[in-house]
Amino acid sequence: MTATRDAFEARLRQIGAERYHDRHPFHHMLHGGQCTPDQVRAWVINRYYYQSRIPMKDAAFLSRVEDADLRRIWRSRIEDHDGTAENEGGIRRWLRLAQAVGLDPDYVASAQGVLPATRFAVDAYVAFVREKPLLEAVAASLTELFAPKIHAERIEGLLANYAFADDSSLAYFRNRLKEAPKDVAFGLKWVLDHADTTEKQDAAAAALTFKTDVLWSQLDALFSAYVTPARIPPGAWQPGEGLLAKGAA
């Protein structure tokens, strides 16, 4: 039997409560000031790969959308990350964070040091959105339902525990607190409107679960590679690589 709208929304929110990556040990370390400078840098490098692929994911989504109204609303997500004449965009803000933690932004943008598991997970998400039905593609984006809490905790934790943290370096997270709510309000309504059978509700829930797995697996990879005992795979960032010249930050 198809769940009511309220029951289905509660099901989606429960997925986040149980599976969102704010529960991961690496985030507890990061927000609690327990990460070394190199562990913070590894996080910044690998998370950049995810950030840089979000507008590519959204462009792939838009290429399949025939509804002009949906395209018009969705394309603001690309502008939020890539920027406009008036808005520098999330990718540039993330590179400012990279510079603040002592990394060369050009090195980070090259994606040279990204962990293989990070690359695999993020590329799988882009492929998922490119290939799956639109309902599942939109449902996968609903991890934004749970993002404001983690951004607020991150701002508070980084400011309290790390010398690099200030209004400039944390601008990405502050802006997402403003940008994400409008995206998720639209996305949630769209999914609730279109998941009108049991089969579609199950598919949407599975898509959201998949996305939480994408986010969780990135932190698993970081923890395995850079938290004791560190096991950095071939080709991934090695501490000391890609740093700014002294005095350049």
UniProtKB/TrEMBL annotation:
Annotated GO MF terms: pyrroloquinoline-quinone synthase activity
GO biological process terms held by the UniProt record: pyrroloquinoline quinone biosynthetic process
Source taxon at top rank: Bacteria
Limits of the Thiaminase-2/PQQC domain: 10-220
Pathway named in the protein's UniProt entry: Cofactor biosynthesis; pyrroloquinoline quinone biosynthesis
EC number in record: 1.3.3.11
Alphabetically ordered keywords of this record: Oxidoreductase, PQQ biosynthesis
The UniProt record lists the keyword Cytoplasm: no
Family: Belongs to the PqqC family.
UniProt xrefs under HAMAP family: PQQ_syn_PqqC
Protein name (database record): Pyrroloquinoline-quinone synthase
